[in-house]
Specification:
globular, three-stranded antiparallel beta sheet, single chain, Glycosyltransferase, mainly alpha, two-stranded antiparallel sheet
Length: 410
């Protein structure tokens, strides 16, 4: 995660979000959400929804002037570009105003056209130390996570364009290009030996080769791509799997759903039950011999991460898998709710705070996020929705996509 604190510099016109058509749609959304969020301390009203959208709009428009889409490469495509792409996507769903799709296309084209042709003929967005892990340092390489995170909202755009006739004239061509890019990007990582089937499912790995600055070809690790590498941690695996689910939704091709399902099977196998009712899991686990040192010890530390934000990403993906009918069952969702609501939460609606998933001490590096509200569970639990409504800041970095998404009820 890349925690940021970007603030809006000014307010902008509210016309796009408060038009008559959007207002009518908003009223229906508010009624649906309010029916599940009506207890004291976390009430959801149309006034709240309008306020959130107004503040969200001012923030995303102001912050979009940073134009990360024009400069970022590697994993930063995920952490700095995708929040805006997702925000524009859900902004369209909330307002039904194509100004947000225009912004999505603008940013998508800006980062995608900066791709460079790599030695195997695929486009990439490489940077120094592009593997973004101390286990695989020093390589000039692109990054699967960054690309997956940035491509997911572009694939989702393709889906709504296909289902909405009035959008096809204007957006069919960019939608076609984005889907083609997404499928070629999947083929790129697959062809580089980055997918491994394991005894519990399957995982994606960080390759241990990059582009040689002197020759323009691959570094020495390329011939060993089928057996070398390092498994992504759970949060990155989960974000990649969500991209695959989006691809499965659009294309109907079994391979994307199958790959996502195999990762989710591995994810579920790593989750352990504590005290008979709470779930916890490690940030990273060794998945195969490529993750072990010659002496058999793991190449990375194993345990619960002290930054709770990573677990929020995991649960978001688990909820996505559950909604797709993959691997996770209602009992798993119930245990996640109990863990977040009954164990991690301080039982205060206003001023809610969350402790670590394992109850361990806070780390001074992340004093404000030993645990977080698992927003992937909001649609499944009234109390968690109340906590969210009472504490969410619609105009901060985390609200970039989450604010309009909650308003629209997704």
């Amino acid at each position: 995660m890349k925690p940021l604190n970007l603030r809006p510099s000014h307010r902008v016109n509210r016309r796009e979000l408060l038009g008559l058509t959007a207002a009518a749609a908003l009223a229906g959304i508010v009624r649906r959400v309010a029916s599940q969020t009506t207890q004291p301390g976390g009430e959801w009203t149309e006034t709240t929804a309008r306020d959130w959208l107004s503040r969200w709009q001012a923030n995303i428009v102001a912050d979009s002037k940073h134009r990360y889409c024009d400069s970022e490469m590697g994993e930063e495509l995920g952490w700095l570009v995708s929040p805006f792409l997702n925000g524009f996507y859900f902004g369209y769903l909330a307002a039904r105003d194509t100004v947000w799709l225009d912004r999505l296309v603008d940013w998508s084209d800006a980062w995608a056209r900066r791709g460079v042709m790599e030695p195997d003929g695929y486009l990439g967005w490489p940077k120094d130390d592009g593997a973004s892990t101390e286990v695989v340092p020093g390589l000039h390489t692109d990054n699967m996570l960054g690309e997956a995170m940035a491509l997911k909202p572009m694939v989702m755009l393709t889906n709504i364009v296909r289902k909405t006739p009035e959008l096809k004239t204007r957006y069919a061509e960019p939608a076609r290009r984005y889907l083609e890019l997404a499928e070629k990007t999947f083929a790129k990582w697959d062809s580089r030996g980055c997918w491994r089937v394991t005894n519990t499912g399957g995982v994606w790995i960080v390759p241990e080769f990059g582009i040689d600055a002197k020759t323009g070809g691959w570094t020495d690790g390329y011939p060993h791509r089928a057996t070398a590498g390092f498994s992504h941690p759970a949060n990155k695996q989960n974000a990649i799997a969500q991209w695959l689910l989006a691809l499965a939704d659009v294309t109907g091709k079994p391979i994307y759903r199958e790959r996502a399902s195999l990762w989710f099977a591995a994810m579920k196998s790593r989750m352990r039950l504590r005290d008979g009712k709470y779930l916890e899991w490690n940030y990273w686990d060794a998945a195969g011999p490529w993750d072990l040192k010659p002496d058999g010890s793991p190449r990375h530390w194993v345990g619960v991460h002290p930054n709770g934000g990573y677990y929020g990403i995991d649960v978001e993906a688990i909820a996505d898998a559950f909604s797709h009918g993959l691997v996770f069952e209602q009992a798993d969702m119930d245990r996640l709710i109990v863990t977040n609501r009954d164990f991690m939460w301080n039982q205060k609606i206003s001023g809610a705070r969350f402790r670590r998933i394992d109850g361990g001490p806070s780390d001074p590096r992340w004093p404000d996020s030993p645990g977080v509200l698992w927003t992937g569970l909001l649609r499944y639990d009234t109390t968690l929705r109340r906590i969210f409504v009472a504490n969410h800041k619609p105009d901060d970095w985390s609200g970039m996509a989450l604010s309009p998404r909650f308003v629209v009820g997704q």
